[in-house]
Amino acid sequence: MSASNPPSAALLSRCKELIDLINYHNKKYYLETPEIPDAQYDRLFRELQSIEHEFPQLKTDTSPTTRVGATPLSVFSSVAHEVPMLSLDNAFSEEDLLAFDRRIKERLKVDETIEYSCEPKFDGIAVSVLYRDKKLVRGATRGDGNTGEDITLNVRTIGSIPLELKGDDIPSVLEVRGEIIMPKKGFDELNQRALAKGSKTFANPRNAAAGSLRQLDPKITASRPLVMYAYSVGYVEGELPDTHGKILQALSKWGLLVSDELKIVRGVGQCIDYYQALGERRLALPYDIDGIVFKVNRIELQQQLGFVSRAPRWAIANKFPAQEELTRVNDVEFQVGRTGAITPVARLEPVFVAGVTVSNATLHNRDEIERLGLKIGDTVLVRRAGDVIPQIVSVVREQKGTNIQSPVRREIVFPENCPVCKSVVVTVEGEAVARCTGGLICEAQRKEAIKHFASRQAMDIDGLGDKLVEQFVDEGLISEISDLFSLDKTSLAALERMGEKSAENLLNALEQAKQTTLARFLFGLGIREVGQATARSLASHFGKLEAIMVADREVLQQVSDVGPIVAQRVHDFFQQKENLKAVAHLQAAGVTWPETEAKPDEPGKLPLTGLTYVLTGTLETMTRDEAKEKLLALGAKVSGSVSSKTHCVVAGPGAGSKLSKAEALGVEVLDEQQLIVFLSEHEV
Ligand code: D41
After folding, report:
1. 88 C-alpha vs ligand 1 centroid, how far in Å?
2. Which residue, 578, 305, 347, is CA-closest to 441?
3. What is the pLDDT of residue 400?
4. 62 and 121 together in one domain
């Protein structure tokens, strides 16, 4: 194709259509009611860009492609950036990255390995914060790159943005650029609160961050869990180090938050490795990132390279596969969990999201279906975020510009009988969950009970995964938990995909698992509301199972963390004949644990009672689980995330954001050696 051929009529009309679509979705986006995923918007945008590139005569002054970034909203006064905030070029493949590296070497007329800084591309709002004589004097959004909005009052409420920089060699004027984000956990909590109040929820953390920054009342912004990560500098009066990496280090030293994933590498090959490694950990990070940014590390080289149109030649963003996509709900089925809870699961038209093909999404419960207003046949926005289970974010009513046709929509009917055992399904007043009343008659509940019993946190039966349990039950080898211990080698080895060796291994693992602890056994029984922590409290309070089995509700409530509901559940569990039989069978099969002395709770007695610990990174002399057990034994709580309530973080090598958050919050940090000394002082 050459630009000398006039564009066809079809292309002309597609161009017009794209302009309409992009303008439409732009507006929806700024009204915070996006209808299509960002990735889809990007595709439309790139399609228009490429048409305009090929046929420049089609490009008009008012094309949405001439508009870079956001249009400032009039309520905030505008700020002219002293140094424009550039945009980032995109790479979509490894080839694009290699070409980026080649272009750089060609421009610099060198053939030596280039040093790059690699950093996460935060999916938030780009901002500028200006410091004069170390004091924060202004905060602004990026806007269109030249003009942004003055959000100083809102920025001042964000804890990770110091009001005054601390340290030496700070330039007298320092404009820091970064991205304001809302961590996933804070986002979930914010939405939970909104749900509870019946107010509007945000579609994703990025929208929530944008909405929170655009508040006219800074008190609202202050109540939102926002964080800023610094990624570069703008206007500066004074001296800064000579590499990007050292500049960010300096910013961090002066009190700003900088990604702890930042890494300086040599050569584009290591950039690709970094992309893959962080890509694999992406969903486990506490915040959303949508790709990696690579930057030439030496400032001198950056200056030689300069920029074209609005993007530096020395930086490129390599995006990850989209986390949100549109697809259709083909059907809704109902799964039965361990406690009989009936969970609706959406069967989706398979769609590629965040690197994997997704064909199911949980719908949680009836309320969720109502909240979404979902019907079978609807087009939905699917998202994979922190957890691996994909979520349905919203139902897309208008499908302007998407190719998904909605067939006839069908109402989702909640079953009155269990789909597995046909027992009656009940919903208790005030509970969101519907439950099958079949108990252990229900094969689904039995399977889940056995899976739970075998799981790592319970009896830890090595090699006995969910699939195998299903197979055992389906083939009639077992029907209750204790049957596990009468499995024999011949019938095991006869199973499909199970050789003699694996059969032997499994039998050994079962034999080993018989020596357990009371806490694991209790947890493994799967009593409702009895999680690992409660099981531990019960075990240490009573010391032996028989005491728990005969305890009445008042006695049970003397255990710390056991309230009336848990006490009721434990009591009910041991009132039921089948459960007593199951316990007896397990003990008869040889499941035992050391009896311990009863340690009735006296709050404040253990050295770490009331203190919360967080473990992060890898430990060398023990596993994280072992460290956790030891801390728990001293009365500590062990949590998965750092907050201002955290007392101490134990950080091993590879510790990431939890460590930096701890440092940002001024939480005490111990390394493994210090932990060992500490534990030995308390004789664990
Ligand atoms: O995390 C980011 N979103 C990020 C954005 C980052 N880590 N680095 C960035 N670097 C730049 C340059 C190279 C222009 C200083 C950026 C952005 N720009 C950026 N953010 C929004 C538009 C451009």
Report:
1. 6
2. 578
3. 56
4. no
CA of 603 to the centre of ligand 1 (A): 50
Provide the 10 A C-beta neighbour count for residue 3: 11
Give pLDDT, residue 3.
46
Q: Is 324 in the pocket of ligand 1 (CB under 6 A)?
A: no
| Domain assignment present for 108 | yes
Q: How many A from CA of 231 to the centre of ligand 1?
A: 7
Q: Which domain holds residue 461?
A: 443-588
Is the C-beta atom of 232 inside 6 A of ligand 1?
Answer: yes
- Residue 2's pLDDT band, with cuts at 50, 70 and 90, is very low
Pair 508, 621 in one domain: no
Give domain status of residue 73, yes or no. no
Buried b (16+ CB within 10 A) or exposed e, 85-103: bbbbbebeeeeebeebbee
Task: Tell me: pLDDT of 603 over 70.
Answer: no
CB proximity list for 37: less than 8 A, separation 6 or greater: 322, 324, 325, 326, 381
**Span 19-63, pLDDT tens digits:** 999 888 887 776 667 778 877 888 898 899 999 989 989 988 888
Residues 170 and 312 in one domain: yes
CA distance 458 to 198: 38
> The pTM is what?
0.58
Does the annotation count 121 as an active-site position? yes
Structural domain contains residue 530: yes
CA of 397 to the centre of ligand 1 (A): 33
Place 661 in a pLDDT band, splitting at 50, 70 and 90.
confident
**DSSP SS3 for 324:** strand
Beta-carbon count within 10 A of 410 CB: 13
Atom of ligand 1 nearest to the CA of 121: 1
Domain boundary residue among 299, 319, 339? 319
Backbone angles phi, psi at 345, to 5 degrees: -125, 130
Establish whether residue 314 lines the binding site of ligand 1, counting it when its CB lies within 6 angstroms of any ligand atom: no
Residues 499 and 616 in one domain: no
Amino acid at 120: P
Number of domains in the chain: 4
pLDDT tens per residue across span 191-200 = 888 877 777 7
Grouping H, G, I as helix, E, B as strand and the rest as coil, residue 434 is strand
- In this structure, what is the dihedral angle of CA atoms 432, 286, 532, 630, given to the nearest 10 degrees? -160
Q: Residue 47 and residue 42: Cα distance in Å, rounded?
A: 8
Q: Does residue 526 sit in the same domain as residue 670?
A: no
Of ligand 1's listed atoms, the one at least distance from the Cα of 88 is 23
